[in-house]
């Protein structure tokens, strides 16, 4: 169960209408290494992870939904005042034809989200290594987005999100060490 707080995890400001930047940011909305994939991956994997690390997946999976909300806000604010012509020029013509200005879970290239982006192996170490890789890939994507953006307000929020991916990766690495230590202990029955 969750309690919804009516505020973003970190404020999202936008300097100006910029559908071209929005098209790139959609990668973190419905892309393979995006926030939806992260949230669904962790909140699904947690059931078969040992109790020692289960809560971590709940914490991080929940936070990823807060990040998804931030990305949605960015995309919405960057496109809400755009004309159809501007959307077309930004490469969002196909999106506009199908969705108008509604958001949709696809990647920057327009490929719809698919559950095949994520895994659940049932092996805690395998799943945690996938989670570490997911965080590193999300961090890299945020870096590429920051490199392409010239909007200082958007970059401020993107830098916050990039740092959270670094923290998540560290926490998953700690979880691997906790589990390895636990599995290495002799058990007496
Ligand atoms: Fe993350």
UniProtKB/TrEMBL annotation:
Mn(2+) binds at residues 35, 64, 67, 135, 168. Ca(2+) binds at residue 59. The keyword Manganese applies. The keyword Metal-binding applies. Binds 2 manganese ions per subunit. Binds 1 Ca(2+) ion per subunit. Its cofactor is Mn(2+); Ca(2+). InterPro entries: Ferritin-like (IPR012347), Ferritin-like_SF (IPR009078), Mn_catalase (IPR007760), Mn_catalase_dom (IPR039377). Keywords: Calcium, Manganese, Metal-binding. It comes from the Bacteria. One of its GO terms (molecular function) is metal ion binding. Belongs to the manganese catalase family. This is Manganese catalase family protein.
């Amino acid at each position: 169960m969750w309690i919804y707080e009516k505020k973003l995890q970190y404020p999202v400001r936008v300097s100006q209408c910029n559908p071209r930047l929005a098209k790139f940011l959609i990668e973190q909305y419905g892309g393979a290494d995006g926030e939806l994939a992260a949230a669904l991956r962790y909140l699904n994997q947690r059931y078969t992870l040992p109790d020692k690390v289960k809560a971590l997946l709940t914490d991080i999976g929940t936070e990823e939904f807060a990040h998804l909300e931030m990305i949605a806000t960015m995309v919405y604010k960057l496109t809400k005042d755009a004309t159809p012509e501007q959307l077309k020029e930004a490469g969002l013509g196909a999106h506009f034809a199908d969705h108008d200005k509604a958001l949709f879970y696809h990647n920057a290239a327009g490929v719809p989200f698919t559950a095949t982006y994520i895994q659940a192996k049932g092996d805690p170490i395998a799943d945690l290594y996938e989670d570490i890789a997911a965080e590193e890939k999300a961090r890299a994507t945020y870096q590429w987005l920051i490199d392409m953006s010239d909007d200082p307000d958007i970059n401020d929020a993107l830098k916050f999100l990039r740092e959270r991916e670094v923290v998540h990766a560290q926490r998953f690495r700690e979880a691997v060490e906790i589990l390895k230590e636990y599995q290495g202990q002799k058990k007496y029955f």
